[in-house]
Design goal:
By secondary structure, the chain is α+β, with helices and mostly antiparallel strands. It has four helices and ten strands. Helix content is about 20%, strand content about 25%. A hairpin with a 2-residue loop joins strand 6 and strand 7 (about 125). Catalyzes the transfer of pyrophosphate from adenosine triphosphate (ATP) to 6-hydroxymethyl-7,8-dihydropterin, an enzymatic step in folate biosynthesis pathway.
Amino acid sequence: MAYQTRHPAVHPTVIAWISIGSNLDLPVAQVRQALESLATVPESTLLWHSHLYQTAPVGGVPQPAFINAVARLQTALPDRDLLGHLQMLEAAAGRRRAEEIYWGPRVLDLDLLSYGNTHSTDPELTLPHPRLHERAFVLVPLAEFDPELVIPGCGRIARHLSAVAGQSVICIPDHAPEMAVCQSRSVQA
């Protein structure tokens, strides 16, 4: 899906990939609202987003399944400014980072997966995301866009899919009620 923002870019732009996840407070609605909110990020255009997927949580404590998607954003914002906007969207959805359990349930989780060709090992913003290539909930939606997509420092998405084939990823229909899952379009990593 293509979206247009009300904030045209005035600086050179880059492509940023963002993962979206939620497993609390009507997660399908949370992810859909997050996608709408990404279309309002200043100096940015939401170019595309994946279908929604139901996925098993990775690590952490026992918790409900997640709803995940990825989005492709063209932006003129510097990477840290974009991260700041993502964190503001999380807070607006009710996320309280100081009260969270590490790898625990989330109202909304927006991760900056990659930002152009940027490589960063800064603990506050590591790019590309350090576990991107290990997570089916990221790789499968990225492969929906293009399995030959190359993420700097990770390589082609298709190269990593077999390593995550055991992780549960189920496509959710576009107009499904909360938590209904595709019966005819289950996606295999």
